[in-house]
Every structure is written in C-alpha cells, then in structure tokens.
Design a protein that fits this description.
By secondary structure, this protein is an alpha/beta fold. It has a single domain (4-91, 117-214), classed as Class I glutamine amidotransferase (GATase) domain (Rossmann fold, 3-Layer(aba) Sandwich). It has six helices and 13 strands. It is globular and about 55 Å long. The two termini are 15 Å apart.
C-alpha cells in the first residue's frame, strides 16, 4: 500500500501539480480542507503560491493554523513549498510586515533589485538555479536531498521574496541568483521547507518527494 501524503488545501497552492508529482513517485496524495485530517496526517505538505499576507490570511480563515502546529508537534514529516516554507518564519516584509508561524527564526525579505555594482537585477527570480550547501554546512546524505550534488543539482524557482534564517543551523541549502545568495531550503527537527517548486524541478524534485514519502 502506497504511503499517504496529505496536502493542505487552503486555496493558495499548486495543489494538483503537487498531487500529480506525489502520485508519480508512488505516493497517495490526499488534498484536504479538513483541519482534523491535517492534524492527524501521516505526512504533511503545506504548499503556497502568491503573496505572503494572502497565504497567511487564507490559512487563518481556513482554520488551519492550529492543526498545522498540532501536526508539527507530533514529529511527523512536514514539507513546506515556496510560500509554504516562508510561512514557517517569524514574519515577512512583503507589502508591509506580517507575522508568520514563528517556527524558524528569521524574516522573509525582497530579493534586492540592485546588484552590488549599482546595476539592476531582474526580479522575480524565475528559472533554474544550482543548489549549494546551506550556512549549516550539513551534508545532504540521508536527507531529502540525498543524491543531489552541491553546485550541480538544479531546482526551479519562481519568487520575489526569500527567507533569511536568523540561525545558521536552519539554512540547509542556498542558491545564487545573479550574485545574490538566497536561502533555498530550511530544516529544523521534523520541518523541511524549500523555496523552489519540487513538482517542477525534474529529477531533483521528484527524488525529494520520493524520499519524503518514504520517511
């Protein structure tokens, strides 16, 4: 029997793309807007597409904040994708200052539109970027990135804001975008979050989802 992966349906994510990717790697996706099913899930994915404030507001309106926190307290596997990762941080500066879930110390800030030499950087960051080890310098062996090669394995990004962990131990992977080093993945306890879209990241993304459903 294939493992069930619950995907939080709060109206702000590529739900069906994520579900298809989960199916492709042998898992059984369960899209749900039921808080009870979220709290009692075996494995949980929190997607997110759009502005941080809208995602947080929808999560609150759907009654999902407490169920997500309850799930995380169990130690079972959790994956946040894109804004679903950003929501783990203390707050975001996107269109004002907005509180996150406060699970990863740090702030979500805009990718600078100006390079160090004063020239312009194109924002949003859209496309493929190579992943590097994070500030924690943790090896990827045995993790969701097992088999990926720092500096060579690439992932697909679509974003204008990125999380900045306050503690090096939470930074699991980074990526260089036109001279700007951004946080590409965070890890703390049972929480794992990626700024990129694994469902669009070919072999690396599918491998990540495959290992997630095997945890």
């Amino acid at each position: 029997m294939s493992p069930t992966i619950t995907v939080v349906d709060y109206g702000m994510g590529n739900l069906h793309s994520v579900a298809r990717a989960v199916e492709h790697v042998g898992g059984t996706p369960k899209l749900t807007a039921d808080p009870g099913e979220v709290a009692g899930a075996e494995r949980l994915i929190l997607p997110g597409v759009g502005a941080f404030e809208a995602c947080k507001s929808n999560l609150v309106a759907a009654g999902m904040v407490e169920p997500v926190l309850e799930f995380l307290s169990t130690g079972r596997p959790f994956l946040g994708i894109c804004v679903g990762m950003q929501l783990l941080f203390d707050r975001s500066e996107e269109f004002g200052s907005h509180d996150g879930l406060g699970l990863i110390p740090g702030v979500v800030r805009a990718i600078p539109s100006e390079r160090s030499d004063g020239s312009r950087r194109k924002v949003p960051h859209i496309g493929w970027s190579a992943l590097e080890l994070g500030a924690s310098n943790e090896a990827w062996n045995g993790s969701l990135f097992d088999g990926a090669t720092p500096g060579r394995s690439t992932a697909y990004f679509v974003h204008s804001f990125a999380g900045e962990p306050a503690e090096a131990r939470d930074s699991f992977a980074t990526a260089d975008y036109d001279g700007y080093r951004l946080c590409a993945a965070v890890r703390r306890d049972n929480m794992f979050g990626v700024q990129f879209h694994p469902e669009k990241s070919a072999a690396l993304g599918l491998g990540l989802l495959r290992r997630f459903q095997q945890q």
